[in-house]
Amino acid sequence: MKTELTGKLILQYLPADYADCFAKKIEGRTDMNVDQLFDNIFCHFPLPVRMMLKLRDAIVKPFGLKVGTSFRDRITVRNEEEIIIGADDKHLNFLVSVYCSVPGKETQTAAVSTVVKFNNFFGKIYFACVWLFHKLIVGSLFNNALKMQK
């Protein structure tokens, strides 16, 4: 994981209360595009991740938070190399950038970045509860997405 965000679109959402980035330089294979990386990350969840998301939805729904929306439906902006998804809720706003440099070069850079802005104290509490899961799951999904593309 690196601290510097990768992708130009995500930078417009800074400053933020929290930001992270998982990035990797891919050498010798330059055929992946941002749509493939997005699908590999957000459309092929392992069963434990799907179960955790359902549990999260069940816990937060009574508090009026958004649940059950597909990640494709959350796309807010995109270009040839980057797709941004996000949601604004009462407690916090989050954005996720999926970045993949254009295929056809000797190397490619792939990254997934997260930006979070807290709207109130409950947002800080909520994120404190999910932060470790976020890091573990996003890192794992990113690494699995890159392996799927081989």
Question: What would you say about this model in short?
Answer:
With 150 residues, the protein is α+β, with helices and mostly antiparallel strands.
Give a verbal description of the structure.
There is one protein chain. With 150 residues, the chain is of the alpha+beta class. It has a single domain (10-148), classed as Alpha-D-Glucose-1,6-Bisphosphate, Chain A, domain 4, CATH 3.30.530. It has helices at 34-42, 47-60, 121-148; strands spanning 18-27, 75-78, 82-88, 92-100, 107-118.
Radius of gyration: 15 Å
Number of strands: 5
Question: How many structural units, i.e. domains?
Answer: 1
CATH topology: Alpha-D-Glucose-1,6-Bisphosphate, Chain A, domain 4
Structural class: alpha+beta
Could you state the oligomeric state of the chains shown?
single chain
Beta-strand percentage? 25-35%
Question: Could you give the topology of this structure?
Answer:
Layout lengths: L17 E10 L6 H9 L4 H14 L14 E4 L3 E7 L3 E9 L6 E12 L2 H28 L2
Antiparallel strand pairs: 1-5, 2-3, 3-4, 4-5
Essential attributes:
5-stranded antiparallel sheet, Alpha-D-Glucose-1,6-Bisphosphate, Chain A, domain 4, 5 strands, 150 residues, globular, alpha+beta
